[in-house]
Amino acid sequence: MNLPPNYSMKSPRQRTLTKDVRSRYNNFCLFGVIPMLLHVQELLSRHKPTELRGTLELDELFRDYRDVSPLGPMEYELTAQASNKRIAVTGKLTCKLRLLCSRCLAPIDELFVIPFEETFQVMKESDPEPDEEDEVVPVTGERIDLRPFLEEELVVQLPLAPLCKEDCKGLCPECGTNRNEQACACKTDRIDPRLEALQNWFKPE
Hints:
By secondary structure, the protein is mainly beta. The chain has a domain at 37-166. It has helices spanning 40-46, 147-157; strands spanning 37-39, 50-56, 68-70, 74-83, 86-100, 107-122, 137-139, 143-145. Strand 4 (74-83) and strand 5 form a beta hairpin. The termini are far apart.
């Protein structure tokens, strides 16, 4: 799988979520939970799970990918549960993507059903960072945008080298023929350049 040039390997887990006055969400009047956005204090005071269901468009996420195309929006079914200043979000993500075979470049339409689990630790800015072993995302703001976490989970679950079938023969490196469909007359045996001079020793004079 080819990652887009502007893709960052830095996980959302490595970024503390803080209140940003430049955020577009600060212009909204929020009461509880809206799609992709969790209201921290509302969840902490509810003491019962909150269901989140909806869809997320993927066109922008995969805009710079050459070998992945969304065949529709991603559906999410999540539950957010707050306890002891921690918010656990669990559920599943479902979407259909068109990938390209890493050997022959044939399109592969695949349905992905991905379990999702993330835990957020509500903190003050003066609190020390949680231990890495806790595997929690520190949150110091009033809202949590789930979108980057859902997108990251989908991206990391994509196969690095998808195959149309296990025994895919791939493309001929010489003429580009799809060897799953037809054979070609190209010689693909390559000799190590360091040993190429030795092949003449075994030819009859």
